Amino acid sequence: xxxxxxxxxxxxxxxxxxxxxxxxxxxxxxxxxxxxxxxxxxxxxxxxxxxxxxxxxxxxxxxxxxxxxxxxxxxxxxxxxxxxxxxxxxxxxxxxxxxxxxxxxxxxxxxxxxxxxxxxxxxxxxxxxxxxxxxxxxxxxxxxxxxxxxxxxxxxxxxxxxxxxxxxxxxxxxxxxxxxxxxxxxxxxxxxxxxxxxxxxxxxxxxxxxxxxxxxxxxxxxxxxxxxxxxxxxxxxxxxxxxxxxxxxxxxxxxxxxxxxxxxxxxxxxxxxxxxxxxxxxxxxxxxxxxxxxxxxxxxxxxxxxxxxxxxxxxxxxxxxxxxxxxxxxxxxxxxxxxxxxxxxxxxxxxxxxxxxxxxxxxxxxxxxxxxxxxxxxxxxxxxxxxxxxxxxxxxxxxxxxxxxxxxxxxxxxxxxxxxxxxxxxxxxxxx
Amino acid sequence: xxxxxxxxxxxxxxxxxxxxxxxxxxxxxxxxxxxxxxxxxxxxxxxxxxxxxxxxxxxxxxxxxxxxxxxxxxxxxxxxxxxxxxxxxxxxxxxxxxxxxxxxxxxxxxxxxxxxxxxxxxxxxxxxxxxxxxxxxxxxxxxxxxxxxxxxxxxxxxxxxxxxxxxxxxxxxxxxxxxxxxxxxxxxxxxxxxxxxxxxxxxxxxxxxxxxxxxxxxxxxxxxxxxxxxxxxxxxxxxxxxxxxxxxxxxxxxxxxxxxxxxxxxxxxxxxxxxxxxxxxxxxxxxxxxxxxxxxxxxxxxxxxxxxxxxxxxxxxxxxxxxxxxxxxxxxxxxxxxxxxxxxxxxxxxxxxxxxxxxxxxxxxxxxxxxxxxxxxxxxxxxxxxxxxxxxxxxxxxxxxxxxxxxxxxxxxxxxxxxxxxxxxxxxxxxxxxxxxxxxxxxxxxxxxxxxxxxxxxxxxxxxxxxxxxxxxxxxxxxxxxxxxxxxxxxxxxxxxxxxxxxxxxxxxxxxxxxxxxxxxxxxxxxxxxxxxxxxxxxxxxxxxxxxxxxxxxxxxxxxxxxxxxxxxxxxxxxxxxxxxxxxxxxxxxxxxxxxxxxxxxxxxxxxxxxxxxxxxxxxxxxxxxxxxxxxxxxxxxxxxxxxxxxxxxxx
Lengths: 432, 652
Hints:
Number of strands of chain B: 0
Low-confidence stretches of chain B: none
Distance between the termini of chain A: 32 Å
Strand content of chain A: under 5%
Number of helices of chain B: 23
Helix content of chain B: over 70%
Radius of gyration of chain B: 39 Å
Number of helices of chain A: 19
Largest interface: A-B, 38 and 39 residues
Shape of chain B: elongated
Largest sheet of chain A: none
Strand content of chain B: under 5%
Shape of chain A: globular
Number of domains of chain A: 2
Number of domains of chain B: 3
Distance between the termini of chain B: 99 Å
Order of helices and strands of chain A: HHHHHHHHHHHHHHHHHHH
Radius of gyration of chain A: 21 Å
Structural class of chain A: mainly alpha
Oligomer: heterodimer
């Protein structure tokens, strides 16, 4: 009798799933409202809406999945249904990016599938049970195979979360999608990878035997490389949306680093999941702002956006607030999550990485300041010469359907920093 | 972690000073900003910075302090960038970078400190200042070396963060750039208040985390003292060179911060709080001086929109009120007896002298100490000379603006005719501010000793010892102050009047040492160019690792198969050779053409080689079929047989 004899599709919304589902709801609805105005005059509107809602649905189902088979099913569906969002513009670049997205995601999903086959050999069931369902004797007899399995899950689901070295699809696919779609891709759909790793390691395999293994170190090294690489490349990137995509790579690996630490010390989970929320709201707001700028002025490069803060002061104020949040300036959401992440890393007593981790997080935060605040600065302080050359700049805020979602996300990102306790309490309850 | 405030006498006094400064600054702003656009932005960020500053001053733990510190740092960015000229934006960029880097480094220190405290199972109010008292020495005395090292690292990180805001060497770079470009009311606050929040942080570190249990046991106060001494001397020297009134004042701030840090360091080395009370009073005093001096600079600027000493020369003539206001600030900051600057500097000086006596005693007994008598003696001289420099550069400004006449007599006339150079509220606010230094200075034994007594609890000043003097006009006290004054006059007459003006004394020469600019020489090349370049190269490689491999594989191993086409002539080898030769030939022709040489018509090498191959095949057929070829093969066989026989024979 094998765990793969039956392949039941089961749904059950547990608290962890609910945490991710709530984020999905907020991000998809907010970006969707933004999309009404943004997509008004574009072609292929019908296709966009259909796949937007299908992706929405499959991500919700993914959160509610209560066994690995169901999770895998909706994970693949999510990939397939979000490809049309990327391909939406029908340009050659969009088509190539969509194919790249598809192939990379497939590769990752097959890595996870390989993991599922392996686990099924040892586990009684693939249902999500806190602490996993692999018996101890399996770990003692076939420990190495199970470690490889764990690595397959990490790398496989890590593709979706943009972990190095399989992050290449992200900076290609996210910027070419229409802005509301890139917002949900970056803020929400990539988090499916995070949920995948949590589900597979904490709910199927059990993390007790992964503590202090090479898998944990490898996970941590990959995450830290990605953190640094993403920020450095974002810093060097002139196109705003691409810059934000690289930023997503970096920020997602903050979360993955948190997960890697959480293998040793559960308290890192607080920071990781807090950052899922903080990054979700912030990145959604950032991509929507980029969308608003593109929709109104058509410029894509940061250096061409000089003085944009005089035209859209409200939008750019929201941008600045969430930027400060992503850097981790108190009292915004990014600060709270970074605080919990770094403290947990230091307290975990993992040699070298316990100290190196927070240092790299802070270096990356510095680079984040470099690539995000640059736009705020030239937007609001364009320089005396610019003001002379453009003496009568009129305010041209985007419509309410655009500004309200952006402002809401900005507000939420601050609120999550001011009142993280409710979420933290919930996470503590889940991962005792 | 939760936000925690406390309000003791020290914090109450400082919050009061901050509020007073903001009020004066806003009164001045109302007039100063009249002709500027974007006033709303200015006032909004002024208010936000006030919130941040008060939060820092009232914080009861490092966590709260950090949060408000960041708010304050970022909000004050808008001041520096306010007028959006090129140099303002550049200075603002520096300011922002220093703030963000300093903030993040400080955050790392707070992480480490929190880690140590929670390892010691302090779970609530973890970073409260009073919980951290004696932390470092306790850890060392109990033998917990690892935790002690962690606390030391935390201390260094936080020192960098606070030092950056305070303007301590080597992160003082932003001060001489940011202060001159900010609006004057904002410069007064930047210099008078925001630097003090950095000092507050260093005070909290020194008085709580690193409070020594025994004297002469820890390197921390020595580090603070060394930084203080370098900052003090450097700021004073830079201020002498400057010919921009606001830049002089900014450099003066750097120097005065150095005085304060020196006092903090000395008192912890000697375990005697007399120098600390001096530092505390100098903090208070410096806030007031800089408020006065920058406001006067602001009044000058809003009248004639110039800051260069050569341009504003003579502006203050026949303006007794302005001269008196500026004079009070200048005399105070220079430490002239009778003003509060004299009292605070004297106290720091007393601390140095006491430490010197202590070390002399230790050395005569043959004891060991971390510092030698000579070092402290040098510190004392640097202290006195820097004090002299303070007087010299203040004299330079005062003489230039209020006594001397402008070279351009028309301009001087227009200056003299200006009677309404500031409004009544501004004049009133500045007069009240200007009264503070002499009033405090003359009632020192009561008022200034009172401040120290009030703050004793918050800063853990030991008031049981003979901590302050009751008479500041004894010969012992006056000696130091008068030495300093004498040095100052010598520097002014000997260096500034003779060396820094041209021969007919008509112009102050700009000797501002550009090459000494640490920012342009070290920080910017490294942080702006070198590190990002290396990082980008490495990260590009990492980024393209998989993408690049996939691309290469598609170009090589997994290349789409082309249909094998029939060649019209020749075979594959001749075709490939022909294509290669053609390419080489094309390049050669291009190069020849580029050199202007004549080239013949292009040759079709594919065809040529194919023809050669045809000819070769034909002649091969002819050869293979000929008689002589048969004979040749026969001979070859014969030779082989003979050779074989010979070899086998020889073998046996």
